[in-house]
Amino acid sequence: MNERNPAALTDGFHLVIEAMQLNGLDTIFGVVGIPVTDLARLAQAQGIRYIGFRHEQSAGNAAAIAGYLTQKPGICLTVSAPGFLNGMVALANATVNGFPMIQISGSSDRAIVDLQQGDYEELDQMNAAKPFAKAAYRVNRPEDIGTGIARAIRAAVSGRPGGVYLDLPAGVLSATLDADSAARSLVRVVDAAPRRIPAAESIQRALDLLAGAERPLILLGKGAAYSQADADIRAFIEQTAIPFLPMSMAKGLLPDDHPQSVAAARSYALAQADVVMLIGARLNWLLGHGRSPQWSAAARFIQIDIEPTEMDSNRPITAPVVGDIASSIAALLAMLKPGRIKPAAAWLGELAQRRQHNAQRMKERLAARPDPMDFYSALGAIAGVLADKPDVYLVNEGANTLDITRNVIDMRAPRKRLDCGTWGVMGIGMGYAIGAAVVSGQPVVAIEGDSAFGFSGMEIETICRYRLPVTVVIFNNGGVYRGDDVNRGGGADPAPTVLMKEARYEKLIEAFGGAGHYADDPQSLTAALADALAARKPALINCAIDPRAGTESGHIGNLNPQSALAPKK
Ligand code: ADP
Ligand code: TZD
Question: Is the Cβ atom of 86 under 6 angstroms away from ligand 2?
Answer without folding.
Answer: no
